[in-house]
Design a protein that fits this description.
Helix content is 84%, strand content 0%. The radius of gyration is 50 Å and the shape is elongated. With 305 residues, it is an all-alpha fold. The two termini are 78 Å apart. It has nine helices and no strands.
Amino acid sequence: ILAEIGELRREVEGELMEAQNSLDADARADGEARSTHGDKWRAQPAATAAKPYWDRISQYRSALQKAGDSDQGVLQRLAAQEGAFGALTAEAAAAQMPRLQAPLLVTGPEDPAAVVAGLRRSLEALQNLANERGGMEEALKELKNRDNVLPRLMATPGGPQQDALFKEELKKYDPLIADVDKNLAAQESLLAATGAANATFRALFDVNGWRAGCEAAAAGVRETVRQYRELLDHCSEGLRFYLGMSEVVRKMKQEAADFAFTRQVQREELLADLERRAAQEDADKLAARLAAAGIRSGVPPPPPA
């Protein structure tokens, strides 16, 4: 974006200079004509005729000056933040995060390594129990799919005999129920042990302080991202400004060139008219002198044409 802005700015400044050159050329030609012909030169002075164009050039240059000052501010901020912006990667952000560390000085009876190992064993045991329940679920599905009591149910009279049949059939699920109960009991015990181990771990490794450190580091990254996006918005806004300025200056440059061309045509016409008038005046003077000479010598004047 900055490279494109720089190219657009150079184009705009070049087109402004071309427009100014057209007006300057008209002003020089107008000045030479006035110097040569004096009061006979009736064309509108260049300073008056070109004033709207000079006003627009001045307005555009003022806007470019302000934009240039803003560009410099953006460039300075980018230079100041180059290192921080260059570090806006997932890896760099992760590297800024604090790490959980064992205390340098252990004041209690707990061994940090043993606490971590115990907590890890508890978590692995909980995962194993969860895996076991997955197997139990599959075994239950398989047993249910194989279990077809409909023939026996159809052959059994209704009432108490069917209730007895259902109770008998459900006994097939008792081993699975017992395994699930055993698994849940073990899980409950493990959850209690894991909770205690986790509490010890959090206190020993200062997990709350670690989280606060992570939040502080993340806040710094978020602030850098905010500044990056802010500068990106400034650059995008600057690009839109120069695109719009390029369009209006290009149009004004063409208008200034057309103005100068029209003025040149008018000068040529006015100059031709002055030359015709001068020639007519010279002819009239010559005719007057000849007429006066003819009268003095007694020769009648020629008849009018």
